[in-house]
Structures are given as C-alpha cells and as structure tokens.
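Fig. S4 source data, part A: sequence.
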Amino acid sequence: MRKVLFAVTVTAALLLAACSNEDKAHSLVKDFLSENLTTDYSVDSYQRFDSTKMVSKAAVENMRQTLGQIKMYGKKPQYANYADGEMLLYLRVKFSLDDDTAKYVQTFYLDHNLTGVVAVKEN
C-alpha cells in the first residue's frame, strides 16, 4: 500500500512540475511575440511542448537569420544564449495577427532553464 501511495505521489508531483514548465514556456513565447511583432496578435493554440538535443548551433543561427527577414517581426529579436549540443525545450504555437486573416504556426526553441527564446522556426 505504501509503495502505491508513494508512486501516485511522485507521479502527481512530476505532472505538476511539467505543467508549471509549460505555463512558463507559454509566458516566454507571449513576451517574445509582444516585444518583437509589429502588430498585435492573438494565440490560437499551443500545440506541442517537448525537449530536444538535435538542434545544432548552425541550425540555431540559420533560424535566427531567417526570422530577421520575416516582415511581421519589426526589429531584430534578442535571444537567449545557446551552446552547441545543449538541450532545448520547444513549443509549437499557432497564432494570428490582428491586421491579417492568415494563421501562423511557429516553433519556439527555449533554453532548458526557461529564461528565454533561443530561436524561432517558421513552419
């Protein structure tokens, strides 16, 4: 009985921690969009929150350069630091701009400490 109760308690704690991280990731993305988009926006949905080590430094630099050329971003965004091979968290976000009828889907790569956005990929 004690083992079952312990297992349930540990599982519940892990789920709460994961929800907390996901909420923090949502907040980081909202802040990034608010600071860098040229117009107001609304988030339609958050589609996936996970981690990866499969993103190279070259890929991060490419995503940063590509995002700088997208018209909806008015200025060059400030990014969190990234070291090659570091684990990143990613969150796919569907949103729309207030002055546009199109829907946009972008993947936001966040540092593993959830302190900032490392790169954004246009999907």
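Fig. S4 source data, part B ends here. Helices lie at 2-36, 57-67.
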